Amino acid sequence: MQILTPQVFWAQRHGEIFLRVELSDASDVDISLQGHNTLQFRAQGHGAKGDNQYEFSLEFLEPVKPEIHQKSTQRQVDIRIRKQDERWWERLTLREKKPLFLAPDFDRWLDESDAEMELQAKEKINKISVESRVRKDPYVGLKKGYLFMYNLVQFLGFSWIFVNMTVRLFILGQDSFYDTFHTTADMMYFCQMMAVLEVANPLLGLVKTGFFPAMIQVAGRNVILFVVFGCLDEMQNKAVVFFVFYLWSSIEIFRYPFYMLACIGTDWKLLTWLRYSLWIPLYPLGVVAEAVAVIQSLPIFDETRLFSVPLPSALGHSLSFSYTLQLYLVLMFLGLFINFRHLYKQRQRRYRSRKRKVH
User: End-to-end alpha-carbon separation of the chain, Å?
Assistant: First the structure.
């Protein structure tokens, strides 16, 4: 039996290829993909030369996905293949010269601009369909207003701390290291007490960020501020306070305005880059500064017996709080690993979504 080539018509979209094989009453249809971009077709059916074995091979311009969807009808064989990368091809085959058996499928044919409009129309319809199924939150305006004001207040608070410390550093030099706590502690107390809301916001469904990473950061900072610095007068005059406060405020003066603008749907590219990039060096440095503060406080807690736990006389007088802080040091660096991983994934997701919007 003579082997012949059927007439094949083709069309494309940004993500798909459509092939229509003019072969009626097709049987024993065998369609396979060789490598990443070569389609092999073989079938028995009635074509231009009557009942025969028909076959053809197409080497596509770019790689395609291995899943092939085909449907045989009484008149033809329809084939649909997804492109590996969703973009418009200038032609179907790798070779510039088109095979003689291949022709455009004018029933499906669109040029690139028409296909783009069709894609946008589908996306718009899907978006409207999804939005129609999602129940609108009647309090969304109130929630956004609350989040905007919260982030604004925190931005102003940390900005005051950052500017105050920077000005004093330029005027007093290293002398400003030793009175940082007495000049900025009240504002830092206020900001860190407000930060407790960042743990509550995910639980109330006001933000999509995780509860656990927020709790690690807020609890860790509050231990340093209220316990190590706030309860030990000897720690309040140490230079490490300057570095801890300066690193904290350096991160927050970019983080809070980013979230503040996000509440009103505004994206400032420079601020976005600073928010998702500056933390990479500053966050680990902040944890190291906190660890130094904890280490410097250990002998003070041993000497003052502050927060020590009384023990029975057979076991000794008391259990020093410094042992708790030593355990906290281990947890601090474990928290650094967890939060760093979480923030890095946030950064990757952010820039992947931006790339998709650009393309």
Answer: 50
Q: Whole-prediction pTM value? A: 0.60
Strand 38-47 and strand 24-34: the pairing is: antiparallel
Inter-residue contact 102 to 58 (CB < 8 Å) = yes
Rounded-to-integer distance, Cα 240 and Cα 244, Å: 6
The string over 70-106, giving b where at least 16 C-beta atoms fall within 10 Å of a residue's C-beta and e elsewhere, is: bebeeebbebebebeeeeeeeebbeeeeeeebbeeee
Domain covering 3-109 in this structure, CATH number: 2.60.40.790
Residue 16: active-site member: no
Domain boundaries, the chain: 3-109, 140-358
Structure tokens at 278: 């500056």
The three-state DSSP-derived secondary structure of 107-122 is: CCCCCHHHHHHHHHHH
pLDDT per residue rounded down to tens, the chain (359 residues): 557 899 999 999 888 999 999 998 888 899 999 888 899 999 999 888 888 889 999 999 999 998 999 998 888 999 999 999 888 888 899 888 888 899 988 888 776 666 666 666 666 666 655 555 555 667 788 989 999 999 999 999 999 999 999 999 999 999 999 999 999 999 999 999 999 999 998 888 888 777 887 888 899 999 999 999 999 999 999 999 999 999 999 999 999 999 999 888 888 889 988 988 988 899 899 999 999 999 999 999 999 989 988 877 666 678 889 999 999 999 888 888 887 887 778 777 776 655 555 44
| Rounded Cα distance, 290 and 286, in Å | 6
Contact 288, 244 (CB under 8 A): no
Pairing of strands 64-72, 8-12: unpaired
User: Is residue 54 flagged as an active site residue?
Assistant: no
90, 283, 303, 351: which one is catalytic? 283
Query: What residue has token string 């004018």?
Result: 106
Q: Which tokens is 271 given? A: 């601020």
Catalytic, out of 290, 323, 328, 351: 290
